[in-house]
């Protein structure tokens, strides 16, 4: 209420009727109002990161700033980069000013010519031993930074990832703090070429920009040196682990998984509520039209999306605990579980974003023609979610990074070495006498079956790489030729992890709720597990003994779970507790007045502000009066 009832944060004109420039300006205005209110909360004694998380996340944040927040990258990447890469002295210099928004920052990594492949980045930072400065330069057009949120017209500072050169050698990608604009006039500094990249499918309030450097000099102290270091004489000191450099990206991937749960919960709330109001067709000819939600096909479109939004939220909480644990181990110099966290974060980011994007689109389709309206907010939500399939690591590339980790784990399993928790199922697979697991449709059986699928795919991929190498192909070429299998292996591994993690987190949650709520939670989880198993039928037939009668029984279990959830479906989405202003959709409002609200939205169109549009007199009337 503190945010949503503030007149300054309420929408006066629907954003889709604003120009591109007006939309950005309105987004900046609202962002500054919202973060001032966060400071007010701090003054009122309500301090804490949760206020920022709510404003930057997929619920309250996108309710206020429907096309994205131009300050998000400042909080989600610039500040964590200072903490993750800066020495205590650098943190003392920069973090306070950034936290108080005395400076606004962004994080520039992706370039016009390179994104996920970090080693291919072209921006250079060359150390000048005479002046003790770095010279940042964009040697080509493709070296221009491209996509950072807030870069175009919002930020005046930036953490730039660039190839470090000193003493004639390249020392790889390192982070540098660079001032982009004058702190008073906001004009770009000498040597800086900066601007906005243009309109996008969504997130047009984020102010994504481009950035080019023409021999821009910064002092040596502006290289963030918590991990790698460059001494005054130009000597490079390596970090204990190269992976430490990517800590910020891992943090963001954890945040993305949580946001996907939030976006999917918004979409499914809108679709379930609409489906309870909308009536369509007869099931029995002698009875009235039924609510759309009573059609089994509609339940199958929507209820698995409810389950996914809950499982994704719980698994992101699990990942968050894992991230904090590994981060604390890193601070003590223990890097043992870093590769495991990296592998899990990569595949979870890929699967949750892909499934959320598909889920939002299925929810839109489930709302028929009205779902196609911009005001339904599926379009805006889809724009947010589908963007996440690409940023912070393109999904296929991330799956292949997880697959690379799994190949190493496979070799460890073959050698009988101890395995970390997320891949311990490989040891069980190798100890099994049969290549096909005995099918068992209990929850434990489904988890083991999905793990067997992942292990079986991994075994085949490893064998195929080996066979290709024996035919004279290099390891790299053999890996590329097996990459379809490898990506599918990582996908299977992640889905098995989600089903297992979801089970553990649901059972943990059931300990603290009433038996009635626990029953509903377990039904939601069972639906998720049955749906994942049925979608993996081809693989289950390859790697388990599942039979046609087993499949029929599994299908019946899924349909029974749908029927069991039907009376509770609206109650479940109501329990997400998403205010109408955050949903931003006439189809999903709590009062169910779909048609009245749709009509009110239609009346807001600029074309409805006058009975006759000027185009009639300018074009239509002369055309109609002329003889063709």
Automatic annotation (TrEMBL):
Pfam families: ACOX, ACOX_C_alpha1, Acyl-CoA_dh_M, Acyl-CoA_ox_N. It is found in: Peroxisome. Keywords: FAD, Fatty acid metabolism, Flavoprotein, Lipid metabolism, Oxidoreductase, Peroxisome. GO terms for cellular component: peroxisome. Residues 445-625 form the Acyl-CoA oxidase C-terminal domain. Its cofactor is FAD. It comes from the Eukaryota. Residues 2-104 form the Acyl-coenzyme A oxidase N-terminal domain. Residues 107-216 form the Acyl-CoA oxidase/dehydrogenase middle domain. The keyword Flavoprotein applies. The active site is at 392 (proton acceptor). Pathway: Lipid metabolism; peroxisomal fatty acid beta-oxidation. Residues 246-407 form the Acyl-CoA oxidase C-alpha1 domain. FAD binds at residues 110, 149. Its main location: other. GO terms for biological process: fatty acid beta-oxidation using acyl-CoA oxidase; lipid homeostasis. Belongs to the acyl-CoA oxidase family. PANTHER family: ELECTRON TRANSPORT OXIDOREDUCTASE, PEROXISOMAL ACYL-COENZYME A OXIDASE 1. This is Acyl-coenzyme A oxidase.
């Amino acid at each position: 209420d503190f945010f949503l009832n503030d007149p300054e944060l309420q929408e006066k004109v629907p954003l889709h009727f604003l120009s591109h420039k007006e939309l950005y300006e309105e987004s900046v205005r609202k962002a500054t109002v919202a973060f001032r209110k966060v400071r007010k909360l701090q003054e009122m004694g309500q301090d804490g990161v949760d206020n920022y998380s709510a404003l930057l996340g997929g619920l309250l944040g996108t309710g206020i700033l429907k096309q994205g927040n131009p300050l998000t990258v400042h909080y989600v990447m610039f500040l964590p980069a200072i903490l993750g890469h800066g020495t205590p002295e650098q943190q003392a210099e920069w973090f306070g000013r950034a936290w108080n928004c005395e400076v606004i920052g962004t994080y520039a990594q992706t370039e016009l010519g390179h994104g996920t492949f970090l080693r291919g980045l072209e921006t250079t930072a060359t150390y000048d031993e005479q002046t003790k400065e770095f010279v940042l330069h964009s040697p080509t057009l493709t070296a221009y930074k491209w996509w950072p949120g807030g870069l175009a017209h919002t930020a005046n500072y930036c953490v730039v990832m660039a190839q470090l050169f000193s003493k004639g050698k390249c020392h790889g990608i390192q982070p540098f703090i660079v001032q982009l604009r004058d702190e008073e006039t906001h004009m770009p500094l000498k040597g800086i070429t900066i601007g906005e990249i243009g309109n996008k499918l969504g997130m047009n309030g984020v102010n994504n920009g481009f950035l080019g450097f023409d021999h821009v000099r910064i002092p040596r102290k502006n290289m963030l040196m918590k991990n790698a270091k460059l001494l005054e004489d130009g000597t490079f000191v390596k970090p204990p682990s190269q992976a430490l450099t990517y800590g910020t990206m891992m943090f963001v991937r954890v945040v993305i998984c949580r946001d996907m749960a939030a976006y999917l919960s918004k979409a499914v709330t809108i679709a379930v509520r609409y489906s309870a109001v909308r009536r369509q067709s007869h099931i029995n000819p002698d009875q009235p039209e039924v609510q759309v939600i009573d059609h089994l096909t509609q339940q199958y479109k929507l209820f698995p999306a409810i389950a996914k939004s809950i499982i994704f939220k719980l698994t992101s909480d699990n990942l968050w605990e894992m991230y904090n644990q590994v981060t604390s181990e890193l601070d003590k110099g223990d890097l043992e579980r870093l590769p495991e966290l990296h592998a899990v974060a990569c595949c979870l980011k890929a699967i949750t974003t892909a499934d959320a994007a598909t889920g939002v689109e299925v929810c839109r389709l489930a709302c028929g023609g009205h779902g196609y309206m911009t005001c339904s907010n599926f379009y805006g939500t889809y724009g947010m979610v589908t963007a996440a399939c690409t940023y912070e690591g393109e999904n296929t590339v991330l799956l292949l990074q997880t697959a690379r980790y799994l190949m190493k784990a496979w070799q460890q399993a073959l050698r009988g070495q101890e395995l970390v928790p997320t891949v311990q199922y490989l040891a069980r697979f190798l100890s099994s006498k049969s290549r096909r697991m005995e099918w068992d449709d209990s929850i434990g059986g489904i988890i083991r079956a999905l793990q067997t699928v992942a292990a079986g795919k991994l075994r085949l991929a490893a064998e195929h790489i080996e066979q290709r190498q024996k035919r004279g192909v290099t390891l790299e070429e053999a890996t590329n030729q097996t990459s379809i299998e490898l990506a599918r292996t990582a996908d299977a591994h992640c889905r098995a992890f989600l089903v297992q993690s979801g089970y553990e987190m649901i059972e943990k949650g059931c300990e603290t709720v009433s038996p009635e709520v626990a029953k509903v939670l377990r039904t939601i989880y069972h639906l998720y597990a049955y749906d994942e198993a049925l979608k993996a039928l081809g693989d289950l037939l390859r790697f388990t003994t599942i039979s046609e009668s087993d499949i029929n029984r599994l299908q019946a279990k899924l349909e029974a779970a749908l029927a069991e959830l039907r009376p509770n479906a609206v109650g479940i989405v109501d329990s997400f507790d998403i205010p109408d202003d955050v949903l931003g959709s006439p189809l999903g409002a709590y009062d169910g007045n779909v048609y009245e609200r749709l009509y009110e939205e239609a009346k807001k169109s600029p074309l409805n502000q006058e009975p006759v549009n000027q185009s009639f007199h300018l074009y239509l009337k002369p055309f109609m009066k002329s003889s063709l």
